[in-house]
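*** Fold description ***
***
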Amino acid sequence: MSNKEAVRKLFAILNDYKRIIAVIIGCLLISTGLNLCIPLISKKIMDDGFIGGDKSILIYLVVCSFVIYMVISALDIIKEKVRVEIAAKVQYSLWDEAYRHLMKMKISYFDAKNAAEIFNNLSVDISNMASIADESMFFVVTQAFSMIGGVIGLFILDCRMTALVLLFIPIKAFVMKYFAKYRKKVMDEFILDSEKYSGWFGDTVGGIKEVKLFGILDNKHNEFNERQRAVIRRQKKMNMLSQWNNVTDVVLVHLLTTLIYIVGSNLVFNMQLSVGSIFAFITYSAYVTGPISAILNIGYLLSGIIPSTKRYYEFMELEEEDSRQRITASPQFGDIELENVSFSYEAGKPVLNGINVIFHKGSKTAVIGRNGSGKTTVINLLTRLYEPDAGRILLNGIDIADIPLQAYRDMVSIVSQQIYLFNDTIRNNICLYKQTDERSLMAACEESGLGGFISEVSLDYVVGQNGAMLSGGQKQKIAMARALVHDKPIIIFDEATSNADAYSEQQINGLLHTMLKDKTVIVITHKREILSEVDQIVVLQEGRITSTGRYDELTWTSDELRMMEMTEQKGG
């Protein structure tokens, strides 16, 4: 994305607030007009009041100045209240847009980035972009009018000194342009260092157990020092750059003021200008040079916003989950068929190669194989977390890629070994916003083997971050209860029996013949007790199906099953 396109998108954010912005600009224009009267009143106060000795006109003009300042202050309050409202709405809309997009992103995006990195990037970018609604941005819109009025005021007072002020403009423009260019470079470096640091931070916190158990606290602290100091160095450089920009601006303004005093004093001593005119001239020169700073500083401010705008919209352009949806009718429960399906996470490294298998409606199928054989990948494709590189997956004869994504997922429940639980109650983790009566909920808990634990702690027990307050077996029982409550026609067990005790395994076996009797069940497991109960076993080896059949039809060896059971905890 080019800088020009980034600026266009940035200002397009304000399109929805045109009427409110018009109110702000109206307040600013009135304030500008009133401010232009102040130097002339000040000139009269000095020349006619103090020097002329007219006390009554002095008091009158001072009161007029006070009233004008009060009106300006009232307009500023109105303007600022409206502006703050716009800024809040802009920030919310950017977050809302980003959140909606994030929730629809392909799962592969989350494989490459952790939560801390994603949140940090969005926070920095949205905060920078929302500054488009800052007071300084709106202030610039009316500065042109202030500048025109200031130039007119200068010419009214003295043409010779006006030339001095106008010569000052290109000098200031050159200095401000230099600072803007340098700041953009530093901001680009800051964003890159900040992104690296947040990614490292999320990765380190995610692996805190390994950090503690392997005694690498000092090593990680050294990495922290290196990465955090890199970020701080960039921040210090940006802060000092801002300070240098401000100081340079002040010095240039004072230099101009000094020159005006020197040139103006000669005119006053020669009786060509009054003392009041000099003070009015200095005020008007500020009306001219002030807008120059503000207008040129737009480039300086945008140089810090543009990199964030680019990264934000590059994020927004990332591909979402496929939603081509060639059909709009609700999907019908039926056979699931993988037709010559191939898939790879990395180019040139196929995980599945030409898979052909049918899961008949209402059947019970076990998928087995050693680590890396592609078992979990089959599940990821069936749940549409990934899409096949080649081939099709059909539901009742229809390509699932043509079915509305949410409508398809409403037909599938998954009970995973790596279930994620929200930091909420057991009840809410089971129901997941589905309205469920207490009787049905308790029945699902009993059927999943969770009833005993519920009797000890209640359904309103808070499970902690990702179920930190529960054992692995309890988490999987919640996953089972969740699947039963949502009662979908297709249920997938992704090595969900790995943490189950003997009693829980018997319950799962029992469910295959009771509550799950009419459902299509696909289970990844190497438990003999479950393998002997299913209608079909699919054996995967290095991404290919090597055999299918019932438990008593396949040729097994104790060693083969034992090896597969040993790998079940690690996934496939």
Notes: The first strand starts at residue 336 and ends at 346.
